[in-house]
Design goal:
Elements lengths: L1 H22 L5 H21 L5 H24 L5 H19 L4
Helix pairs in contact: 1-2, 1-3, 3-4
Length: about 110
């Protein structure tokens, strides 16, 4: 169950990171509230996952999921660069996440 919490926490990190773009520096009420809620959920689920998963692994996977998700959504939603080197680097992060999962208990 800890790995499921960690996956959802990482997806919520992606959501709040993208949400920051829509808050306009926390000057827009509803996007700001949704972003803060996403942060709270993400941190809470991360804390549950870290009861079982080693902190180094859990934190690295959490930030990795958030980084990959945010980079992909940046490409899709905001027209950010999708150069071959950028896609390769995203793939390397995914490989690192998979490696940490395979090397960890649970």
């Amino acid at each position: 169950m800890a790995w499921i919490y960690l996956l959802i926490a990482g997806l919520m990190e992606t959501a709040w990171a993208i949400g920051l773009k829509y808050t306009a520096g926390f000057t827009k009420l509803w996007p700001s509230l949704w972003t803060l809620a996403g942060m709270a959920i993400s941190f809470y689920l991360l804390s549950l996952a870290l009861k079982t998963i080693p902190v180094g692994t859990g934190y690295a996977v959490w930030t990795g999921i958030g980084a990959v998700g945010t980079a992909i959504l940046g490409i899709v939603l905001f027209g950010e660069s999708h150069s071959a080197i950028r896609i390769f680097c995203i793939a390397m992060i995914v490989a690192g996440i998979a490696g940490l999962r395979l090397a960890s208990p649970g």
